Amino acid sequence: MKSENALELKDVSKAYGDTVAVDALSFVVPHGMIFGLLGPNGAGKTTTLECIEGLRKPDRGEIRVMGIDPTAHPRRLWNAIGVQLQTSGLPETMTAKEALAFFSRYHGRTPEYAILDRFGLTEKADDQFGNLSVGQKRRLALALAVAHDPEIVFLDEPTAGLDVESRMELHAMMLELKDAGKTIVLATHDMAEAEKLCDEIAIIVAGRLGVVGTPSRITAAGDKRTRISVSSANGTFAHVAPELPEATLIALKDGYAQYSSENPSRSVTALLALLEKRNDELVDLRVERPTLEERFIEITGRTQK
């Protein structure tokens, strides 16, 4: 019977001597979503993942991965999950095809080499791992993580250090896996990546849960201030920006005035009325909520105080 959630943590704690790495951490990940695991360096993300993946035993608490207790049933767990680490331990002389055969047989499956084509590696099948580009190595690592058709995949900084094109390719592959019904747990420092891909996000600070929710809900729960940037044809906002109701001027730069507003509807209405009064034309107007990166800084800074 399929478990209610793909992943469940309840009051999980792990310490190394006097250092508490994970402190009563609880969250759930429903099936079929991309779930982001964020946090500053030393927050406990790696220890959390290692406990989930069965590499470490938590001191307290319960973990269930597809209904499996990682400590009690490690073999069942390893066949149910796929793991892509940030760095690979593959021998430099092993070819992509050999690596796929090795990982597939470890899980008791016949290698399906078509997966190399799916990840754009057919032409590199007989190339040694050491001769692959960074992007190709990451694609191979993802292919190996899903070669045994796991239900849930854990990705640790999968796009770190990649160029824009390679990053976009891996993003497309993650979304393809999600569309195929897989659950993905994505640990990343890239806030834009998390905001773009993740259905839900958990931010961990000092081993504890800072916040969990959808990216839009997390950003909306900030200091409630909206950023307004405006530029006009005749320079109404270029040099000496006029006051706007319930808005504070932040900066004047490159012909733009940037405001912070607690009531953007009223501020923008007054802005447009002012342009009409001065017979000026709007060139650009942007009304933006705080980014996930800004909320991340706010949450981690507040929680660590």
How much of the sequence lies in strands comes to 25-35%
Identify the strand order in the major beta sheet: 5-6-7-3-8-9
Shape: globular
CATH class of the largest domain: Alpha Beta
How would you characterize the overall build of this protein?
This protein has two domains: 214 residues, 3-Layer(aba) Sandwich (Rossmann fold); 64 residues, no CATH class. Helices cover 33% and strands 28% of the residues. It contains ten helices and 13 strands. The strands form three sheets. It has a six-stranded mixed sheet with strand order 5-6-7-3-8-9. The longest helix is centred in the middle third of the chain and has 16 residues. The protein starts with 6 loop residues before the first strand and ends with a helix.
Task: List strands and helices in order, with pairings.
Elements: E1 7-16, E2 19-29, E3 34-38, H1 45-52, E4 60-65, H2 74-80, E5 81-84, H3 96-106, H4 114-118, H5 134-146, E6 152-156, H6 164-179, E7 183-187, H7 191-197, E8 200-205, E9 208-213, H8 215-220, E10 226-232, E11 247-253, E12 256-261, H9 264-277, E13 282-288, H10 292-304
Helix pairs in contact: 3-5
List keywords for this structure.
single chain, 305 residues, alpha/beta, Rossmann fold, 2 domains, four-stranded antiparallel β-sheet, 10 helices, globular
